[in-house]
What does this fold into?
Amino acid sequence: MKKAKVLISIATYKEAENIVKLIKKIRFFSKNIKILIINDKSNDNTFFFLNKLSDKNLIFLERPTKLGLGTAHKLSMLYSIRYNYDFLITMDGDFSHDPKYISRLLKKSGKNNFVIGSRFCQNGKSDYKGLRKVISKLGNIFAKKILSLKINEITTYYRVYSVNVLKKIPFDELNAQGYSLGVKIIWLMKKLNTKMIEIPIHFKDRNLGKSKIPKLQIFVSFFDVLHLKFKDIFLDQKFYIKRNTTYNFKIKCKICKKSFFSKFKKTYQCLVCNFKSDV
It folds into this structure.
């Protein structure tokens, strides 16, 4: 694993209270690993605080408005593909995902593996209480049963992806947000016959900042799971083994000058600023 090229991606929105402390803790366990921060224009001086760290292995992408966790997650995937990383680690910026688990997650990573930090496998823990805990647990059980998944944790974004696998997925189908996107990606991992591995973690509730996922998204996810089940039964899922046409690094955005475009219907959409190109 020492020779593997690893990227940690953290999507932030109004996380200035947490992000510097989080990066310092990541550095305690991983000194030189590359960290990509995707910040949705939160106007809370996130870049100012990060710049003071003078961390040469820190990459910062500022988006012009709140474009959501879904497109931030897609952007992190495309970034890892474009710059030839071997593994992509995604985690939240609110300290719910403790950096102390990074090495344990990476130890189980592999070319055809998908690894997830789990609250619901043996020895996993969660700080959620009351109705929030019940909804979280039932949501995972529901998705697991309906989609015939062999893991207990489906909705958290503390994950290690093999970039070799990410190159094959249809990015034009990843248009959901929040929990729905998380479930869809795991379903795609299953369809690609990846080895799914759970590592027990203690999931901590945020104590600073505000939650980024609207409560309504939880109920939207219920119908999205049913849609995936329908697709699982009646339709064949397309993957891209040789040339993936659902993303494009050759288009340069006229607005932000970046080149991270994902196919959206009949156009390509910039995942940094949302500009659409017909090219």
Q: What stands out?
A: The chain has a mean pLDDT of 91. The chain is about 35% helix and 20% strand.
